[in-house]
Amino acid sequence: MEPTLGLLGGFGGGGGRGGGGVGACSTALSCDQTGLNVPNSEKDYMGISKEAELELGLGLSLCSGGGSGVEAKGKGSAWGDYGRILTAKDFPNGFSTGSGRAAAGTKRAAADSVGSAEAGSPSTGVSQVVGWPPIRAYRMNTLVNQAKTSNAEDGEGVDRDEKKENSKKKINHGNDKNDSNIRERDHLGFVKVNMDGLPIGRKVDLKAHTSYETLAQTLEEMFFKHPSRTICGGKEQSIQPFKLLDGSAEFVLTYEDKEGDWMLVGDVPWGMFLSTVKRLRIMKISEANGLAPKFHKRNEKQRARAI
Amino acid sequence: MAYSFPEEVLEYVFAFLSSDKDRNAVSLVCKSWYEIERWCRRRVFIGNCYAVSPQIVIRRFPEVRAVKIKGKPHFADFNLVPERWGAYVYPWISAMARSYPWLEEIKLKRMVVTDESLELISKSFKNFKVLMLSSCEGFTTDGLSSIAANCRNLRELDLRESDVEDLSGHWLSHFPDNFTSLVSLNMSCLGSEVSFSALERLVSRCPNLKTLRLNRAVPVEKLASLLRRAPQLVEFGTGAYSTEIRTDIFSNLVGAFSGCKHLKSLSGFWDVVPAYLPAMYCVCSRITSLNLSYATVQSPDLVELISQCPNLKCLWVLDYIEDAGLKALSSYCKDLQELRVFPSDPYSAEPNVSLTEQGLVTVSAGCPKLQSVLYFCRQMSNAALVAIARNRPNLIRFRLCIIEPQAPDYLTLEPLDTGFGAIVEHCKELRRLSLSGLLTDRVFEYIGTHAKKLEMLSIAFAGDSDLGLHYVLSGCESLRKLEIRDCPFGDKALLANAAKLETMRSLWMSSCSVSYGACKLLGQKMPNLNVEVIDERGPPDSRPKTCPVEKLYVYRTVAGPRADKPDFVWTMDEDGALRLS
């Protein structure tokens, strides 16, 4: 049955061939089923009687191996395997506001057309649907970045970090370019700095520095000398000043690089450091001992790469 | 037949017609008016770059000075349009370079712009003045260098929200020392740091600079210096604002802002430290537009700022503002016309802030001039929507995004049909509407019945059957753009309303139930439409005709099928069957 076009004002061929215009499965909407030829009932635009509205919903299920295309298939497979949107089956965890939805679905079914083709109901799976919620990629990138960098400071909720990490992973940008944009924006210069023993971290703008010395100086001021109002609410420090770089004091300055390894700060050229640093940590010297062997190994790798 | 007026007089009169609609109407009066009008049309707006070809435009309007072209469908903003889909501007630039040597303005939205295109622009148009690239991509900062170096009379360079490959900040230094004509610079989307001294000198020597939107890389301590060099600024966007507060920087900033007697619009504020916000209080009384949508600042600080802006007309803000902040907004800002509230944490299941439907209801009640709304929230009720509709029948744009797809009325657990129905019924001037939440075909019946001025409609995860789509296509007389995702709309309504599609700019349907067979039929029967199937699974012919296509983009055109399709787009046309790109 070839679907035909009804142009402005409804069907020319009315109850004739394929007035329903459905290119659906063969067992779906045929003229008879939709009551196209029912003489007395009130017809709507398509020449389909109002009573047959219920059947409209049924008939529209499309192929999934050419089945009967009726609601018996259940929500999830209403559209077969093609162009299928995510349904409750994809989210076995259920929903947070779940109870409402089931009831609503039932109500709808009772009150109205069958609506067998109702969309699946993602639960906490908002993050798993491409392009939803409809926020521009540009804004999403900024949000994600801000979440990453500001997390350490407000110290809000232990699991926020995780959630944000998860959401970051799940954002489907659909192409690699956006991912690299996130990385690019990372290197706007601001990186987190945490110090062992302090729950709340700080941020430092690496672009404002041109050498390790100035960076170390700033960090010393931040964590050991500067008692004034800070972004994270002004905790007074009363630890003696020291030098972070020469390993002579209680703490050492380390950084995590792109590959997730923790390295001692100061060994690679400043520019190279800038391009690989993800975040900084002022580590107790006792903890840092384990770094040395790793460091040397990585250093060798880097030297090899540099060639 | 004697003419009433000499051509020159008619031309002079036509010059007063700025609206395209009026000019189009004038062209239809008679042949001679058509001729006169086409020779004096200076501005052309092309809403869909594939609806017409550069050659056709140039042939009809030979003396154009300003073009505005839009490319990809709106849903490209949300990554629903695959890469390499199209919307390349180069063919336009190259054609215009030959035929419009006096072109002054190019404004593009959602187009792919290459460095080559930018270089061609910079070298082809001697009097080039305005370049606006909104949500564009495909170029690097090298392209910007060409523009800076060669466009001697450049007035505006606006890169809003474009995706630029940022090789370095060096491009800014390419503006020659004798370049003084800059009026507007928006580089907020760029990542790299520009040479600050070059920026300072540029700002100093451009006395007409009215708009300066910096990028994140400009730190707060540098702002004062820029503001002091440009006290005439009307629109200013800060860089990142997150340096730890220092009294000297703060007081410097206060001084600089107090010198700016004309500032009306502020933006930027990435990572803003709340302690810096008071630096701006001295300009707040004149502020009409505030974009705080990147400011991760809590409600009390936001309220402090907003309460000082009685003339605020436009506010973009994150949901940190919360219901309490919106209540304050509604009491302080009686002139408010546009409100956009963005989600700070859209992917968490639980709300992280206390922002509900109540905030929007309060603003709708308290701000009599409110006409444009974009609101992200986690719960909504029919009652709230009805209240909003009754409070604000003057709404023109209403875009509501309830973050969870298909969320029902949280009080009654019913669909939100009645609520949105009230919106379209009361707001008779509504031109743009975005739906969300649990919705049945009923809402579309309301929309088709009442939304007679609606021009753009966005639908997601809504409806039950083709009736829904049919109501919209047959009822919304002014509809120009319809975009649909994940709805159970199939072939029937589409085919039954095929002629309607010729009266619209475009229709987008993704993850719906439109079959390949129906698309082919539509393409065959409607020669003035390009029916494009986007399917990354491979040629649609390899699957049964009954199977739904992934994405469908239908638009009217006088240019025929496009020649630059990627391998995942097929145009359904008269030759039917396999028409691979």
What does this structure look like?
The complex is a heterodimer of chains A (307) and B (581). Helix content of chain A is 33%, strand content 9%. Chain A has nine helices and five strands. Chain A has a five-stranded mixed sheet with strand order 2-1-5-3-4, sandwiched between helices. The longest helix of chain A is centred in the middle third of the chain and has 18 residues, at 137-154. Chain A starts with 52 loop residues before the first helix and ends with a helix. The model of chain A is unreliable at 1-124, 151-188, 226-242 and 292-307 (pLDDT under 50). In chain B, the strands form two sheets. Chain B has a 21-stranded mixed sheet. Chain B has a two-stranded parallel sheet with strand order 5-7. At the A-B interface, helix 1, helix 2, helix 3, helix 4 and helix 5 of A face helix 17, helix 18, helix 19 and helix 20 of B. Chain B: This is F-box domain-containing protein. Chain B: Residues 5-46 form the F-box domain. Chain B: It holds the Pfam family F-box_5. Chain B: Pathway: Protein modification; protein ubiquitination.
